[in-house]
Amino acid sequence: MNDLSAADEPRPRRRWPIIVAVAASLAIVGGSVAFALSTRGPGQEASTAPTPAPTQTSAEQTQEASDEPLAIAATPTPGPVSDDETVEVARAESVATALVSVVDEIGQRADGSAVGAEAIATGFVLGEIQAKAREQLDLGYTQVGEAVITSITATDVNLTGEPPTMTLTVCVDVSKIDVLDAAGNSLKASLYNPGHPVAHVYGAEFIDDTWKISSHDIPDQQTCAA
């Protein structure tokens, strides 16, 4: 990896599969997600509503998203929120980890499916995931490789709010990800990859007896170690 500092100049907006997602890693890809997790570089704030999937041509309109659920793993067992911060941080971190994996899975499957994402995401982030899934299918892009989480840090933990909330800074390395177009050509040279892990800031809310990721941003001030 290149040794770049947090003060790097903002990069141009590039396609990158979530976070991901994202994402994780996907992010999760043009005007939608790429979490790898996100198509945004530092300094580009998330919008307040999900970005619509690209306009389809008549040929693309014949494509249908799969109804096969995403293989979401490592989510905590639903149950009431406790007053033990250590326990709740661990539960929320497992959901953030699952989110990055889901963004990877969407990019790798490229079948338009986001069924099951509502188990770990809500609001803006759920819209991001759904838009990415549709875009992967429409563009015929397929992700190769996976994002790697290098660290997760919880801040602003409020277990007594209505609902309880938490902020998670997730450092994601996307250096092992490539995206292939419909003809099998690599798009790696155009993917956003600054040469070091990128900090993704996720907002989590405790809804329906479980933590769900509801907001996503990539801050100007990067805090991930090279």
Report on the architecture of this protein.
It is globular, with a radius of gyration of 16 Å. The strands form two sheets. The protein has a four-stranded antiparallel β-sheet. Strands 1-4 form a two-stranded antiparallel sheet. The protein has helices spanning 85-109, 123-139; strands spanning 142-144, 148-158, 165-173, 178-180, 198-207, 210-217. With 226 residues, the protein is of the alpha+beta class. The termini are close together.
Give a short overview.
The chain is an alpha+beta fold. Helix content is 19%, strand content 19%. The model is unreliable at 1-41 and 44-62 (pLDDT under 50).
**Average pLDDT number:** 77
Model regions low in confidence, pLDDT < 50 over at least 5 residues: 1-41, 44-62
Total beta strands: 6
Please state how the strands of the largest beta sheet are arranged side by side: 2-3-5-6
Labels describing this entry:
alpha+beta, 19% strand, 19% helix, globular, 2 helices, disordered N terminus, four-stranded antiparallel sheet, two-stranded antiparallel sheet, 226 residues, single chain
Topology, element by element:
Layout: H1 85-109, H2 123-139, E1 142-144, E2 148-158, E3 165-173, E4 178-180, E5 198-207, E6 210-217
